[in-house]
Each structure stands twice: as structure tokens, then as C-alpha cells.
């Protein structure tokens, strides 16, 4: 497994990170706690050392499942979790961190992230200085080791940096969703901020398992994903048909090719979810894929057949 340095924190993280949104169950269907637990252990055994969760994933359920799966090897893994947009006032950040520490059965969190910017989803606007001051206090107390942000624009990231060190940015990023390439990725490179790309397989689209007639079950968040809307299906199916020969030539799956493409970018990791042990092990295998410059150029051109038709809104869902 390729490793990455988390910003300037000195923390080493795996280039493939296991994402645990689905482990919270809310906004997903067909999730089984036992299978999730097995997936977490399988991910670790396959070389994934870094696990990303959040207090908002099932109101702490995801954090609890992570702890139940690997608390016995806490010193060998990296925990990343997040505080939600409704808990960004100074005291709220401290309280949320306390709950996450309890859920995770640990006395420190390796990476603590602001999940969404202040004001998101109609929640109160909170000065970034207040939130960052709380995060800095937690860092000084040893309760967190590093600070990250998620879903921030370049402007929001620049403002946060005025109040403390930011070691990571977590944006949506995949071959089919590339808004961050325009101005945020270069900024992160200049400021030694590691990118933790979520939805690197476009919420499963880049695995090739969803055909044009697929209907998601009620309650599945992917039904609201802009890529899954009818007007995008033909372009995506065409792109997948062109990616498949490349994957076959490399001896990998479409999903592994998608993950390999993401982590081919310097300073970038891919957060990949898994419902079961086989999926987790398959994701981990992408951490050793080697892509040539020609491979990358070909994949890039194919992806633009989708992304050139998206609007400028960086949010993936029509919530």
C-alpha cells in the first residue's frame, strides 16, 4: 500500500482510506453491522491503515462500529472523523469531539475535520475563527493530532488557514467529478495540504455495476446524485465502455482503475467505502496499481466526456 504524509502533521496515512458513511446506515439501504465489521478488519489486513467516519454518520453509529471492529489495534490505525455543520460554535466543537472520543473508545483522534462549512443546510453561521479556536484548543490538549476541512471552497480554506494549520481537505473527486482540479488542488499542493478524495468511484458508478435502467431503493442517497440523473446516463455508459479495456489490460476492475487514477495525483488519497470484506480487500488492492503517463492521458480524456457536461456547482447531490 502506498503511503502519504498527512499535510505537515508527520502522520502517515494509507493512500486508500476506508470510508464509513455507509456504516452509519442512515441514507443507505441494505447495510449489515456484522458485514461492515468484517469489511473493516479485511481492509486493515489488506493494508489500509486509515479509516474515515463522522459524527453525522448515523448519529455516531458509524464511529461506534469502527471502534468495535478495531479498537484492539488502535495504535496501528489512523482515525479520521468530523464535526457537523450544526456543531461549529466553540463549546459545541468541544462537546462533539468528546462524543466522538467516547464513540471511538479512544483518548485521541488523529484527524478531526469540519464536515461542512458554516451555514450549510440552513444551520447557523459561525465565524470560522470560533471553530478554529476550538480545534486549536483540542490540539493543544492532545485530544486531536491534526485538523482538516471537508467540502470547503478555496476561499473558505484560505480563511480557515488564517487561524491555524489545516493538514487536509476532503472534497468529492473522481474521474467523473473534477471540480477541485480548477483551483483547489494547486492551492493544496502549494500549502502542503493533503487531499482526501471522497466518492472516488462516483458512489459506485465507476464500478460499472449500475446500468441505464437501475432504480435505487427508497432512502438510497445515490438517487439524488447528479451523475445518476437520466441526462447523464448515456455519457457515463459510453465512458465506462471505453475504460473497461484499459482495466482489463491492467488486470484490474473498473473500480480499482478509478481508485488508481485518483491516487496517481501527488498528495491525494482516495476514500472508498465497502459493504463487505471482499469489497474492502478489492479497494485495498488498488493501492499498488501502476499507471503510465499514456494510461493517465487516455483515462483523463475519457473522463472529460462526462465532466465537460456538468455545471459549476461542486455539491454532488440535489438535496
Provide a quick synopsis of the model:
This protein has 10 helices and 10 strands. The chain has helices at residues 33-45, 61-70, 90-104, 128-140, 154-161, 184-190, 230-250, 254-263, 277-285, 293-307; strands at residues 3-5, 12-14, 16-19, 50-52, 78-83, 111-114, 147-150, 168-170, 194-197, 268-273. An 8-stranded parallel beta barrel has the order 3-4-5-6-7-8-9-10, surrounded by 6 helices. The chain has a two-stranded antiparallel sheet with strand order 1-2.
Indicate the proportion of strand residues: 5-15%
Q: Terminal Cα separation, in Å?
A: 35 Å
- Helicity, in percent? 25-40%
Major sheet size, sense and barrel closure? 8 strands, parallel, barrel
Q: How would you state the average pLDDT, rounded?
A: 93
Radius of gyration: 18 Å
Q: How many E-type strands?
A: 10
What is the ordering of alpha helices and beta strands?
A: EEEHEHEHEHEHEHEHHEHH
Q: What's the tally of helices?
A: 10
CATH superfamily: NADP-dependent oxidoreductase domain
In what order do the strands lie side by side in the largest sheet? 3-4-5-6-7-8-9-10
Low-confidence stretches: none
Supply the number of structural domains: 1
**CATH C-level category:** Alpha Beta
Amino acid at each position: 500500500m502506498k503511503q502519504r504524509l498527512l499535510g505537515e502533521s508527520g502522520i502517515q496515512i494509507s493512500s486508500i482510506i476506508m470510508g464509513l458513511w455507509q456504516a452509519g446506515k442512515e441514507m443507505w439501504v441494505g447495510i449489515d453491522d456484522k458485514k461492515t465489521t468484517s469489511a473493516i478488519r479485511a481492509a486493515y489486513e489488506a493494508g489500509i491503515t486509515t479509516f474515515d467516519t463522522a459524527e453525522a454518520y448515523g448519529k455516531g453509529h458509524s464511529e461506534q462500529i469502527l471502534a468495535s471492529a478495531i479498537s484492539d489495534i488502535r495504535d496501528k490505525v489512523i482515525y479520521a472523523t468530523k464535526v457537523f455543520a450544526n456543531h461549529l460554535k466553540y463549546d459545541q466543537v468541544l462537546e462533539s469531539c468528546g462524543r466522538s472520543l467516547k464513540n471511538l473508545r479512544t483518548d485521541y483522534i488523529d484527524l478531526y475535520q469540519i464536515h461542512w462549512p458554516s451555514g450549510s443546510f440552513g444551520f447557523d453561521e459561525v465565524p470560522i475563527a470560533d471553530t478554529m479556536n476550538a480545534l486549536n484548543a483540542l490540539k493543544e490538549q492532545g485530544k486531536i493530532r491534526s485538523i482538516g476541512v471537508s467540502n470547503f471552497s478555496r476561499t473558505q480554506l484560505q480563511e480557515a488557514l488564517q487561524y491555524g494549520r489545516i493538514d487536509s481537505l476532503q472534497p468529492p473527486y473522481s474521474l467523473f467529478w473534477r471540480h477541485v482540479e480548477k483551483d483547489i488542488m494547486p492551492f493544496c499542493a502549494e500549502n502542503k495540504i493533503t487531499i482526501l478524495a471522497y466518492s472516488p468511484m462516483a458512489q459506485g458508478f465507476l464500478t460499472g455495476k449500475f446500468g441505464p435502467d437501475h432504480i435505487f431503493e427508497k432512502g438510497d442517497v445515490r438517487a439524488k446524485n447528479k451523475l445518476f440523473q437520466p441526462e447523464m446516463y448515456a455519457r457515463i455508459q459510453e465512458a465506462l465502455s471505453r475504460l473497461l479495456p484499459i482495466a482489463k489490460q491492467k488486470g484490474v476492475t473498473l473500480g480499482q482503475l478509478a481508485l488508481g487514477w485518483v491516487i496517481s495525483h501527488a498528495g491525494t488519497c482516495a476514500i472508498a467505502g465497502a459493504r463487505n470484506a471482499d469489497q474492502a480487500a478489492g479497494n485495498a488492492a488498488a493501492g499498488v496499481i501502476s499507471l503510465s503517463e499514456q494510461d493517465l492521458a487516455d483515462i483523463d480524456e475519457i473522463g472529460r466526456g462526462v465532466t465537460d457536461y456538468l455545471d459549476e456547482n461542486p455539491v454532488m447531490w440535489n438535496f
